[in-house]
Amino acid sequence: MTYADDRNETDPVLVVAPGLTFGGCELYAAGLAKALAASGRRTSLVVHSANQPTFITLVECDGLQVGSIDFMTEPAPRLASLAKGATAAVICLPLPVPEPDGPEPLDLLVSLAEVTHVVAVWQLCHETFHRSPVHRATASALLRRGVKWVCVSQQNAEQMRSMYGLKSGDVQVVLNGVEDGEPAFTGDIRRARRDFLLGRDNIYALLSVGRLVKWKGHETAIRALTLLPAIVHLYIAGTGYDRPRLEALSVELGLAERVHFLGQRSDVRELLKCVDAYVHPSTAEGASFALLEALVTATPVIAAKTASNPELLDGGRLGCLFAPGQPRSLAEQVMSLIASVNLKDKAALAREHVLKHYTRSEMWEGVGRLLASQ
Question: What is the pTM of this model?
Answer without folding.
Answer: 0.88
